[in-house]
Design brief:
Elements (H helix, E strand, L loop, with lengths): L6 E5 L3 H9 L4 E4 L15 H13 L3 E5 L12 H11 L4 E4 L2 H10 L4 E4 L8 H9 L4 E3 L6 H10 L5 E9 L10 H6 L18 E3 L2 E6 L15 E3 L4 H6 L4 E4 L6 H20 L8 H7 L7 E2 L24 E9 L6 E5 L8 E5 L8 E2 L2 E3 L15 E5 L9 E4 L13
Parallel strand pairs: 1-2, 1-11, 2-3, 3-4, 4-5, 5-6, 6-7, 7-11, 10-12
Antiparallel strand pairs: 7-10, 8-9, 13-14, 13-19, 14-18, 15-16, 15-19, 17-18
Helix pairs in contact: 1-2, 1-9, 3-4, 9-10
Length: 421
């Protein structure tokens, strides 16, 4: 295990998420421009936004890695050198993620000093492949999700101590090996390995008999049918010590196309878990607050992925197509009024005077708060905030920290965190 503290690496699908995860404790973020990344459905960054976002992160001592990890086709190469030059020399990214050897070769020519990380799309599952990519100029390998903890420990022993390893520890998994899937191409025409995956693995499927094409028969696993391609979600919050002790250098949280609340929750709990481990490794305990919060973001049933079982032993299929207990975010704290007696909120969904709202904040925990009074931007008292994205001021027992999330959901006890003090 490296003497250096392990990195918490968070998703930054757009500027809002970048600012959020920086505030919630990320050591580094991964992001994408409008081309060459594998998540074209996240907001992503224009050139101007990328410059601004990386400058903001660097001001807070947070690194920024830019994804250029598509499997490129010939027409993708037309603007490749220009994009590499911008990412390296104008935006000043700390590293780029690649999986295509052609893109890697151009990076080495156009920006030879730019750090290169090998994406999970490259399906690296062994020490020889790690060493190969290091010889090509890579400084970090994002291992395939299919690699077990035992294999990671063995890989770490066989490779150079200078070569960093990164692993996904939280978020969606993919039905295809390291994300190399063609379902989206075939069913929708959207190129999955070019960044436009429509996630058809999340759809329900049935079978038909060739002479009776109008009769669809579910391969029943429950009353709604079967979802033979959909994977469970990865969650390793209870195994942070094992991840750190395996010798990896970075804990990666999936989710650039998910919301800011998800990114904040996941970043907060993994930040706290890592800090708790390093403060006293021998007495590390999982805080019930962590699992409680992670259960409130939109997710499928959680699983430990392939860290303890191989794909052949357990395919990690989510047969229920279940999405569990999302929190209903109603607003994000954007500041206070001039005399700091009221909390200013950017409204996300309608809420009312008298509502009891739950608070997720960057540091620490707080019991739910009651909206005692509500005012519009001109300080007229109102009973609700009906207009999307309107700015409102609320009075509660305490003025709330900036970038806190206010939410509610159907559970009566939501927000009453275990052992909250």
């Amino acid at each position: 295990m490296s003497d250096k503290k392990i990195e918490v690496l968070s998703p930054a699908g757009d500027m809002e998420k970048l600012r959020t995860v920086v505030r919630y404790g990320a050591d580094a973020v991964y992001m994408s421009g409008k081309s060459f990344g594998l998540r074209t459905f996240s907001g992503n960054f224009t050139h101007e936004e990328m410059v601004e976002g990386i400058r903001f992160a660097h001001e807070h001592n947070v690194k920024c890695y830019v994804t250029m990890n598509i499997l490129a086709v010939e027409e993708d190469l037309k603007y490749l050198d220009e994009e590499i030059d911008f990412v390296a020399h104008v935006a000043k990214a700390d590293a780029v993620l690649v999986s295509d050897p052609g893109i890697l070769s151009r990076i080495k020519k156009v920006a030879p000093d730019l750090e290169i990380h090998i994406s999970t799309q490259a399906s690296v599952t062994n020490s020889a492949a790690c060493s190969f990519w290091q010889e090509q100029g890579a400084s970090r390998i994002v291992l395939a999700r299919e690699v077990s903890l035992k294999q990671i420990r063995d890989i770490r022993k066989q490779i150079s101590p200078d070569l960093q390893l990164e692993c996904f520890v939280h978020g969606a998994m993919c039905v295809a090996y390291s994300g190399r899937c063609l379902l989206s191409n075939y069913l929708t025409g959207r190129r999955s390995n070019g960044g436009a995956c429509a996630q058809p693995c999340r759809w329900g499927y049935s079978v038909v008999e060739e002479k009776r094409p109008d009769i669809a028969m579910p391969v029943e696993e429950d009353a709604r049918g079967t979802y033979i391609f959909g994977s469970k979600d990865l969650c390793m919050i209870e195994h942070v010590p094992e991840m750190i002790e395996s010798g990896i250098d970075s804990l990666k949280i999936e989710g650039r196309i998910k919301g800011a609340y998800y990114a904040a929750c996941a970043t907060k709990v993994y930040r706290e878990a890592v800090d708790r481990y390093y403060s006293d490794p021998e007495h590390f305990e999982v805080d019930p607050k962590w699992t409680y919060l992670l259960d409130k973001v939109v997710h499928r049933d959680y699983d430990t992925g392939f860290f303890y079982q191989s794909p052949s032993e357990d395919a990690k299929i989510d047969s229920s197509k279940s999405y569990n207990k999302p929190a209903f975010v109603v607003g994000v704290v954007s500041g206070t009024n001039e005399d700091k007696t009221l909390t200013r909120v950017a409204q996300k969904n309608k809420f009312y005077k008298g509502d009891v709202l739950n608070v997720l904040m960057p540091e620490g925990y707080m019991d739910p708060v009651t909206v005692q009074a509500m005012y519009d931007k001109d300080m007229n008292e109102i009973d609700s905030c009906p207009h999307p994205e309107m700015t409102v001021y609320i009075r509660t027992d305490k003025v709330l920290p900036e970038l806190s999330f206010l939410s509610r959901d159907g559970d009566k006890d939501f927000g009453i965190l275990p052992d909250n003090k």
